[in-house]
Amino acid sequence: MVSSITPCLMFEGRAEEAMTFYVGLFPESRIEEMERYGPGEAGREGSVRRARFSLGRQSVMCIDSPVSHAFSFTPSFSFFVECESETRIRELHAVLGDGGGELMPLDDYGFSRAFAWLNDRFGVSWQLNLA
Predict the structure, then answer these.
(1) Rounded distance between C-alpha atoms, residue 20 and residue 26, angstroms
(2) DSSP label at 7?
(3) pTM surpassing 0.85?
(4) Tell me: the pLDDT tens digits for 12-57?
(5) What's CA 10's distance to the chain center, in Å?
(6) Which residues fall within 8 angstroms of residue 50, CB to CB, at 6 or more apart?
(7) What burial letters (b/e) apply to 68-102, b meaning 16+ CB within 10 Å?
(8) 45 with 38: CB under 8 angstroms?
(9) Which of 9, 12, 23, 58 has its CA at a distance of 20 to 30 angstroms from the CA of residue 29?
(10) How far is Cα 117 from Cα 124, in angstroms, rounded to an integer?
(11) Is 27 in contact with 57 (CB distance < 8 Å)?
């Protein structure tokens, strides 16, 4: 039996910064719990050992990896955000895209009047769709 399934994002020292950024963008979002590495532990002292935050009703976990690795996030995993207004999709597109990279510019692609796909400054991929 499985009790829950939760996406988990692995950062290299920027987990708290990313969580704070994300919860500031979406209403009803918050950092729910955070454990930090202490002195003499595997990770850099004060970095995030394990945290849980919510983006709206979606629970997400994240960590700061104590080990450097040769990979990062990939667009094959993304957060799909349904926006209720053109104003909101444009706001999120601007803020999430700042310091990141665009995969599909905000446009009408036929399947949606307004859709964009981008990577944010942390490398996490977002699909924004006008509902």
Answers:
(1) 11
(2) -
(3) yes
(4) 999 999 999 999 999 999 999 999 999 999 999 999 999 999 999 9
(5) 10
(6) 34, 35, 61, 62, 63
(7) eeeeebebeebbebebeeeeebbebbeebbeebee
(8) yes
(9) 12
(10) 11
(11) no
